[in-house]
Amino acid sequence: MQESVMQAWWDSSHMAGANAPYIEEMYEAYLDDPQGVSQEWREVFDKLPKVDGVELDTNHTLIKDKFRTLAAMGPLSRVGVSASSAGSNTHSDEKQVKVLQLINAYRFRGHQHANLDPLGLWQQERVRDLELSHHNLSESEFDSVFNVGSYAIGKESMPLGDLFKSLNRTYCGSVGAEYMHITDTEQKRWLQQKIESVEAKPEISKEKKVAILKGLIAADGMEKYLGSKFPGAKRFSLEGGDSLIPMLKGLIHEAGEVGTKEVVIGMAHRGRLNVLVNVLGKNPSVLFDEFSGKHDESLGAGDVKYHAGFSSDFATAGGNVHLALAFNPSHLEIVNPVVMGSVRARMARREYNSGNVLPITIHGDSAIAGQGVVQETFNMSQTRGFAVGGTVRIVVNNQVGFTTSKTEDTRSTQYCTDIAKMVQAPIFHVNSDDPEAVLFVTKLALEYRNKFKRDVVIDLVCYRRHGHNEADEPNATQPLMYQKIKKHPVPRALYADQLIAEGVISDREVDKYVDEYRAALDHGACVVEEWRPMTEHSVDWRPYLGHDWDVPYDGSISVTELKGLGRKLVTFPEDVKLQSRVNKLYQDRKAMIEGEKPLDWGMAENLAYATVVNGGNPIRLVGQDSGRGTFFHRHAVIHNQTDGSTYMPLQHISDNQGTMEIYDSVLSEEAVMAFEYGYATAEPSCLTIWEAQFGDFANGAQVVFDQFLSSGEAKWGRLCGLAVLLPHGYEGQGPEHSSARLERFLQLCADHNWQVCIPSTPAQVFNMIRRQIVRPMRKPLVVMSPKSLLRHPLAVSSLEELSEGVFHNVIGEVDDLDAKKVKRVVMCSGKVYYDLLEQRRKNEQTDVAIIRLEQLYPFPQEECAKVVAQYSHVKDWVWCQEEPQNQGAWYCSQHHFWQAIPEGATLTYAGREASASPAVGYVSVHNQQQKALVEDALTIK
């Protein structure tokens, strides 16, 4: 601020030196709420001059500094306010400021004194900001009336005593609201109005109170029934967190009333069986059969019952809502991005109307604080490629993780939910023994999510009545907690007593509801009144069922059509200026389309995408550098060098094309790939692709490969067509960026669970991509995609080769060799083929043939037999790979190789020696090894 302007204002005001600290406080109160200070002060601050067009209240730190600087100048004359009124108002104004600070303190820190723990074990630290004395106020002033500013109680002023009681009811009752960390003023004001206007405890109708009680009866009754019928069996009981059932049902009802059509839920195992039966309407008799060990043999390997998913329809006042509970392994929080991906796909079908699809994720208190995928998923929540319009996140806070209960052992923050503050999500802590408060924050959370399209968190503070599972003995590790739990009434009993005391219901009616629920379980009938048979809420998977991996298909496309699509790929508006290297690439692509140059990898890949969207299928391609391509080969997204805007030719193929989405993702593998898995399981017509920046980065998503992609169909019957591109190839770049760990994927191969391919030509990648969508079969595709082959002079194809429409799982000898003179056959996959081919040609060898295996799994036995047949006389067979002997395909696929070669032949290995590291770190050593393994493969002993 200009010195002269500030001095002039100071000189014409009453901001005398001794008053400076008081003025600072008054000004802070004004900034927080202009209506919270007297009109006289408001006029003073409203008249603050502007400097260079900037209002002074946006530079309050600078002003406060000037207050301090000028305070030493002594008393100055006051203009506009009489001296007599100045003296008389100073004391009351000062008290008014303190009252506003008291309100602000409760908004910021009231949650720290809230009654949140049903067991009363939490030892919250004393918060002096919430004490009257901290603000120079006392009970003797309770009858004094003060302006309450923006405190949304419906009154402009209140006696201090009434205000103090109201603040405690609002912020220190059964709800602890954290929202002042949000920087958006509109959101804060909205939340304040919603919470303060009803003092966090709105009136609830008798009907809703009875519905809450029935939900608690169901939650308790289900657990008691299972406990008596199957004693000692693992069920991961919900007992102690019973309010989750009426909470979820209330949330679904509220969502349905405002137009939600689908709800996707993700949760771990705690309370899952209860949710399945009492919310989604799973038939109890089916669950009891699962406990008894009965199963449908047609369902594959299956999974434990508390990992199972389920789908149903749920009747609400706004119409039926389709519910989907996602399948989830024991990796707890990993299901969250899977849910988000599924929701995003459902939103895409509904033209991205987030109000139609609601994600709900249910967390454990130790898991949400302890597992990194939570942070990754929060970080994705507002990004362009992964936003789902906000998620309602519920924490079933048992206050113990397995056997760990001490806060200093489970996290480094006060609350387990503090991770949510990274995206400024509001957090509502609530005592689960107050189900009406639970219902209030649930409704508030949904309204916030729908209005602001952001995540919101409910911390359902409860307890775990039994051990981690029903066979555990919790007293061994938490003796004090479980002594308390043993004496603590169940939530159903507490709430029933409350309603009886209120005259809402009689004890006879309570007993009736309990007996009716028990009878329903005895009959094995659905216990959810809102359950409805499913209608067409989800995509139809029937066309994709029952197909083998080698189902016949016609992927051919004419050269004429390819040229037409190719010309659209190299066409862009005149005002789009390309970077020089990109311009050269596009000029080359124009020549490729006109037949003047052979097609390289990037052009063939883009052409494949063009044919898919031209056929009406959508494509979603996601990775950390997918628009450009990590190795500068794809350039599907053009960046205008003039204004930084982007243009995607693939979005301009035809008027009726499928959507084309390419996103450079957040720097995550685990959450992003899990998101794409969820997307692919919800949208079979879409070609969904996740690309690792480097193939070894897939390590960061290993849980997704292990628990979902490789085994989801076997465990849960979940089909998925996700394609995974993993750049792989030994280029002397060191251990980390050479190998995509091919062996790990081959180790997981069984039951035709997925495809593992290593294409070696542009035509092969073109037809592999098309095959993934043209075939009616939906299986995951794992691709060891290339690096150096993207621009290798021999790795080129013609338009005619692309138009064939066939991906060759096996490619035989390409040179004109006399098969009868061949003495050795080398089998290989990927880049090493070209090293072998070039060296053999250099050696002018004609007695060594080379066969490429482009698909390692499912192993193409029949196709391989046809290629091998002409070498039935050869006894010397070699498998050659770049990877060390204990890695790559040698150990995992050797049995297939033996089966493929002629009877009586020998099979030897040519490659690097076994190694703990995927590759060496020195280029010179790499080159020596590469030369040696090629020579070894080609040298007939």
Automatic annotation (TrEMBL):
Residues 599-792 form the Transketolase-like pyrimidine-binding domain. Keywords: Oxidoreductase, Thiamine pyrophosphate. Its cofactor is thiamine diphosphate. GO terms for biological process: tricarboxylic acid cycle. InterPro entries: 2-oxogl_dehyd_N, 2oxoglutarate_DH_E1, DH_E1, KGD_C_sf, ODO-1/KGD_C, THDP-binding, Transketolase-like_Pyr-bd. Its EC number is 1.2.4.2. GO terms for cellular component: cytosol; oxoglutarate dehydrogenase complex. The keyword Transmembrane helix does not apply. SUPFAM superfamilies: Thiamin diphosphate-binding fold (THDP-binding) (SSF52518). Pfam families: 2-oxogl_dehyd_N (PF16078), E1_dh (PF00676), OxoGdeHyase_C (PF16870), Transket_pyr (PF02779). Belongs to the alpha-ketoglutarate dehydrogenase family. This is 2-oxoglutarate dehydrogenase E1 component. It comes from Alteromonas sediminis.
